[in-house]
């Protein structure tokens, strides 16, 4: 296992040998795991901040059982781990400029080579995204050829589905402005319904709905950060990004069956719940328009 932070010197402080100050606690833990823990740290082949710690184990890989490394500074090479824990790899200081964000992202991508086959990753930390949602959407517009408003809707929907009421309120009030008609269009009732369902609220005020501190803005900003991260995970491949987003969609409702030709299901009548079908290829019922 390796624990990685933004820089290696973050792990300065207490040495591993000072882990059990209480003798009673130490003896209790040793009694529970006698086949893993050494009675005295000095018996271990390695037990230090620089070299990591090695517990009792049947194999003898070159990697220590637990090691601590930096991500941007001090990242190891020629090692492979079954578990990598990323602990606060992003700090306020590391996201102040696009270049610094890219540097951290590149270091993270490089660190994935340290993971063994079928290895696991865990992340601990706070999401910082000082880069504007407008910058992310503009970059993705160039890569995907989709309109910025379309990408903003995708970001909104992704955040609403993934985070819902737990979304972090936006702290960014600068950057490009998206006009209400551009984002909402003719779908205000539909978008309000989505928000009402997610937040379990029958009434959404105008300020809550679309303003500089609205739920829509919170989810666009949060969703843009998600899209940016997903784009990096897809190797900055626009087609792969769109494919992964498509896999997030759950299709429901009526599906077409073989033999229906050009029949289109429109809906059901209000009282009898009878299906309304437009048969585009049935000129006796519907005149085809060219």
Description of the molecule:
The chain has 290 residues and is an alpha/beta fold. The protein has nine helices and eight strands. It has helices spanning 23-32, 98-111, 133-144, 148-162, 180-184, 188-199, 206-209, 215-233, 238-247; strands at 2-7, 47-48, 52-53, 67-73, 81-87, 115-124, 263-268, 275-279. It has a four-stranded parallel sheet, covered by helices on one side. Strands 2-3 form a two-stranded antiparallel ribbon. Strands 7-8 form a two-stranded antiparallel ribbon. Helix 3 crosses helix 8 (215-233) and helix 4 (148-162) crosses helix 8 (215-233). The longest helix has 19 residues, at 215-233. It is elongated.
Please summarize the sheet with the most strands: 4 strands, parallel
Average pLDDT rating = 78
How many helix segments?
Answer: 9
Poorly predicted regions: 10-15, 254-260
Task: Report strand %.
Answer: 15-25%
Number of strands: 8
Question: Which structural class do you get from the secondary structure elements?
Answer: alpha/beta
General shape: elongated
Percent helix range: 25-40%
Give the termini separation: 66 Å
Record the strand order, biggest sheet. 4-1-5-6
Order of helices and strands: EHEEEEHEHHHHHHHEE
Radius of gyration: 27 Å
